[in-house]
Amino acid sequence: MRPLGVRVDDWLKDSDEVGPSWLTVDLAIFTLRDNQLMVLLIERGLDPFNGMPAMPGGYVQKNETLRDGALRELAEEAGIDGCQLHLEQLGTYADPGRDPRGRVMTVAYLALGPDLPTPVGGTDAARAFWAPVARLEEGTLRLAFDHQAILTEAIEEVRRKLEYTAVATAFCGETFTLRDLRTVYEVIWGQPLDPSNFRRKVLNTTGFVQPTGDQWLPPTGRPAALYRRGHAGLLNPPLLRAATSGQRG
Fold first, then answer.
1. For 167-173, which contacts have Cβ atoms below 8 Å and span 24 or more sequence positions?
2. Secondary structure letter of residue 156 according to DSSP
3. Over the stretch 115-157, which tens digit does the pLDDT of each residue have?
4. Which residues are paired to 81 by β-bridges?
5. In which element (H, E) is residue 25 found?
6. Rounded to whole angstroms, how far apart are CA atoms 7 and 27?
7. Residue 102, strand partner residues
């Protein structure tokens, strides 16, 4: 603790309690591919943890914002334009031992997008790839740093946000059917939803979706109405999971 009457600058200069620290950003990037929730990982090409999978990310440069750093790292390490994604801060992680190189604090970002392309590794990433979230939850994929814990929180945050916000539409294209939207919920929550009940709840939630007036014409079967995301950010009433609400959605 700084003694009374001692200037902060002088105390920091001579203190053995305060050392240098660095700031990074890491990205928890999710998409749906082949009816699976997938997370974007890179294979590290440098020490520490050379050869191990990790979240894409890196040091924040001195003249950039956190968001700009996240977008740059996403482009450099995976070849993906993050400006097209739903991007928001997940949290800050700063345990002293999380990085063997020293005191490194990271701000994790949550990024969501529809059927994102095959990533291309770059800079210190030997390669980038999509991994099924199921592998992380089964414990069959070990990640570098504390990224396993960060992604565990990120996955639950996505599931929670589907209940209370319109973020499920971030996994859909510009236009989508209600079946497309229901598939997002079923895949991410891991539980089937009654189609009629789901349709009623979505259409009765003000501002969740907006009809386009167009239809999707399948090769066989009946046409389906197309929708786009509405103006609502929060869902009122929320669309609760069976485990939360006690009944299927």
1. 167/86, 167/112, 169/209, 169/228, 169/229, 170/85, 170/86, 170/112, 170/113, 170/114, 171/30, 171/31, 171/32, 171/112, 171/113, 171/114, 172/114, 172/229, 173/114, 173/115
2. H
3. 888 887 766 777 889 999 999 999 899 999 999 999 999 999 9
4. none
5. strand 21-33
6. 38
7. none
Q: Are 203 and 195 in contact (CB under 8 A)?
A: no
pLDDT digits (tens, 9 = 90+) for 43-94: 998 899 999 999 999 999 999 999 999 999 888 888 888 888 999 999 999 9
Q: Are 70 and 88 in contact (CB under 8 A)?
A: no
Per DSSP, the three-state class of 76 is helix
Counting Cα atoms < 13 Å in the Cβ hemisphere of 34 gives: 8
Tell me which residue of 171, 196, 193, 197 sits closest to 182, measured CA to CA.
193
| pTM (predicted TM-score) | 0.88
- C-beta atoms surrounding 30 within 10 Å: 24
* Contacts for 121 with CB less than 8 Å, ≥ 6 apart: 42, 43, 45, 77, 78, 79, 127, 128
